[in-house]
Amino acid sequence: MNTRTRPTAALARFGQGLGAALERLSLRERRAVVAAAWVVGLGLLWWLALAPALSTLRQAPERHARLDTQLAQMQQLAASAEQLRSLNSSPPPGRAATLRALEQYTSQLGGTAQVSVQGDRASVNFRGTAPEALSQWLNQMRVNARLLPVQAQLQQQANPAGWSGNLVLAGPGLQSDER
Fold first, then answer.
1. How far is C-alpha 114 from the geometric centre of its chain's CA atoms?
2. Which of 70, 123, 143, 174 is least enclosed by beta carbons within 10 angstroms?
């Protein structure tokens, strides 16, 4: 016997048995069984096909917004990486240009920071520097002066609101021009 005919034969026997059982019922009972089968069938259709699709449609705007946010973040990171890649292809600024940039960007913090340079390191003391201003300043140091923090001792202050402490920066621009 072929294995492909077994499920078909079993299904045919089931259908014959079901048909015989329905023939034994009265007309009203047959209608009730058919109506119950329709209700069960429609319930299964809803549970297996329609409800998941409707759930997906309801969640689509939220997922779309979340993905748009992630895409914007990825594009911002890609632009930042491209900017850094282009900076790395150019020679680092000289010591004088780095010191000018350090002084210029630090003066924009409005007197909440002081710079002292010792050799190839710059130490910056902060007193109540606003978090947004500190973040911008760090980005300017990294991108424009090509200085990176090598040591940080910062504490968040409540009054005045902001960051206080010491940050040590180093980079190729702070090395002496006599190479």
1. 36
2. 70
Report yes or no: 106 and 115 within 8 Å, Cβ to Cβ.
Answer: yes
Q: How many CB atoms lie within 10 A of CB 162?
A: 20
Quickly list DSSP for 113-133: EEEEEETTEEEEEEEEE-HHH
Mapped onto helix, strand or coil, the DSSP state of residue 93 is coil
Tokens of 97: 């240009």
- Rounded to whole angstroms, the Cα distance separating 45 from 53 reads 11
pTM recorded for the entire structure: 0.54
φ, ψ of residue 90 in degrees (nearest 5):
-95, 155
**DSSP H/E element including 170:** strand 162-170
Q: pLDDT band at 82, cuts 50/70/90?
A: confident
**CA atoms 19, 23, 29, 32: torsion sign:** positive
Q: Are residues 110 and 166 in the same domain?
A: yes
Tokens of 16: 């014959």
Dump pLDDT digits (tens) for 125-171.
999 899 999 999 998 898 888 899 999 999 998 777 789 999 999 98
**Would you say residue 78 lies in a domain?**
no
